[in-house]
Amino acid sequence: MENETRTDSSRFQDFGRKVDERFSEALPRVEDEVKRVIAFLNDEVVPHVRQNSSQALRLAAEQLNKLAEHLDRRRG
User: Fold this and answer.
1) Using CA atoms, how far apart are residues 19 and 21, in angstroms rounded to an integer?
2) DSSP reduced 3-state for 76
3) Nearest-CA neighbor of 44 among 52, 55, 54, 32?
């Protein structure tokens, strides 16, 4: 039983080392992808959101104005 415990422990340590190696190999690629996504968001998404958010606010204001007029008509 003691040999089994040592064997199991050794297998677990080997597995841990292999996982560490895989993460170490993948980490630079993951970091590059994260940088690429951040750049895309900053360069492509944020400007469109800023531009379209002002349009969305204007549209929402128009709709709120129509709703207020409708509520006023129903009361009066």
Assistant:
1) 5
2) coil
3) 52
pLDDT tens for 57-75 read 898 999 999 999 999 998 8
> Apex CA 39: angle with CA 38 and CA 42, to 5°?
85
Rounded distance, CA 76 to CA 59, Å? Answer: 26
Q: How far apart are the first and last CA of the chain?
A: 89
Query: Whole-angstrom Cα distance, residue 36 to residue 7?
Result: 43
Measure Cα distances from 51 to 39, 45, 65, 75 in Å.
18, 10, 22, 37
Query: Residue 62 corresponds to which tokens in the numbers above?
Result: 């128009």
